[in-house]
Amino acid sequence: MVIQLLLYLILAIVVIAIAIDLIPVWKSWFGRIHIGRYSDKRVWSRALTVRGLSWLSRMPAIKVTDNTRLIVLDMLRGNYTKSAIQHWQEAALLLGLNEYLRHNDDPAARQSIMKFLDSKLDGGGRWKEQPKHVDTAILAYAILSLDFIDSDRYEPAIHAIWELIREHLGGDGTVNYRQSMKGYRYVDTVGFICPFLVAYGLKYDQPECIDLAVKQIVEYEQYGMLESHHIPVHAYKVENRVPLGLYGWGRGLGWFAVGLIDAWSQLPPGHRHKPVLERSVETYARAVMRFQHPDGSWKWTVTRGECRPDSSAAATLSWFLLGASAIDRISAECRLSAETAMQYLMGVTRRSGAVDFSQGDTKDIGVYSMLFDVLPFTQGYAIRTINRYLNTFHKKGEPR
Q1: DSSP letters spanning 163-229
Q2: Closest Cα partner for 260 from 290, 282, 289, 281?
Q3: Are 69 and 396 in contact (CB under 8 A)?
Q4: Domains plus CATH for the chain?
Q5: Is 309 in contact with 357 (CB distance < 8 Å)?
Q6: What is the pLDDT of residues 100-156, one digit of tens each?
Q7: Where are the bilayer-spanning segments (predicted)?
Q8: What is the dihedral of CA 153, 155, 160, 166, to 10 degrees?
Q9: How big, in percent rounded to 5, are the helix, strand and coil portions of the chain?
Q10: Per residue in 63-80, is it b (16+ CB within 10 Å) or e — as a string?
């Protein structure tokens, strides 16, 4: 009897383990039935937003590994997902939803955002879970960007991020990605910290924060770009400026893009750093457009046409190019490129409103995910881009 019960228990464990492996596969397969059926940008925008709001209240777990078998073991070991990965997912959704609320009166959406903020911050405006990594700066930036809240309520949390960034300053005067990796500078960090530093510097009259953001960008341009093509490498070593990882990693292009465009666009006309960053925006815009494919996508390795397209690259670069279209010299081509990228994203949107085929989380310098699925980060930037586009360019009578 005991042996029989033990066998039943083992069988139940095996069935549960198999089910945990199969459920994500089944969900992806089922979700992709009738993918890409959106043709009206306003309908698409609404579908994206509804899906984004649902994720804000219950964020999908973003996997650390590419392992698709015996996932339960990763869960038990704590290797299934990490909070730092979630921060930039949450930030992108907040940024997208804030852009939506700038042009739409939606009390339910505002309420969902307030509920999310309450889950992250206590009544005194402090983080419930103290951040350890600079990834959180993009989430703090998203909170600072919310138009309908009193951001002063969250001042302790915002100030804590500036202190965290200062703790990550290296001897060269730029910011580490991790305290355990002080000798490297990652392209991700440009996207994580630079928009926050500019927003914080302007709000609290701290010019050294803006100086740091510009230094982070300019030094990455100097040491982390492929000469003549102006596309970033994944990272470089501070000691000897040796490039590390891949030149042309799609989401790496996106990280540099969102850091640059949000830093530049926040600076008021006449600010001493505005012309410097504007030249960077123009140069980078011309560079990324050269690697866009006719269908509007960028491959996960943008220099190789044989690679799979990455939706996270398309979403972030479309936001960048839409912002860059404010520069008269490149306005028309940037707008066309952004529109083509949005058309691609519409074609990979599930009927549920979730944008599909984003590359999974990167494992290390030069070690990239081969899983392509939904990613809240991509969703957020798609929401952000389409709402800005519809309310800037999409006038009555224009093609949808």
Answers
A1: HHHHHTB-TTSSB-S-GGGTTEEEHHHHHHHHHHHHHHHHHTT-HHHHHHHHHHHHHHHHHSB-TTT
A2: 281
A3: no
A4: 32-392 (1.50.10.10)
A5: yes
A6: 999 999 999 999 999 999 999 999 999 999 999 999 999 999 999 999 999 899 999
A7: 6-26
A8: 160
A9: 60, 10, 35
A10: bbeeeeeebbebeeeeeb
Amino acid found at 379: Q
CB 323 within 8 A of CB 306: no
Three-state SS string over 196-214 comes to HHHHHHHHCCCHHHHHHHH
Three-state DSSP class for 232? strand
Q: Cα(292)–Cα(279) distance, rounded to whole angstroms?
A: 21
- What is the Cα–Cα distance from 91 to 348, expressed in whole angstroms? 22
Residue with tokens 């891949």: 246
DSSP state of 236: E
In the chain, the amino acid numbered 352 is: S
Q: Using pLDDT thresholds of 50, 70 and 90, give the confidence band for residue 34.
A: confident
Q: Does the global pTM surpass 0.70? A: yes
Residue 290 and residue 248: Cα distance in Å, rounded?
A: 12
Query: Tokens in use for 239?
Result: 């000691």
CA-wise closest residue to 166 among 134, 127, 135, 206: 134
Distance CA 250, CA 229 (A): 14
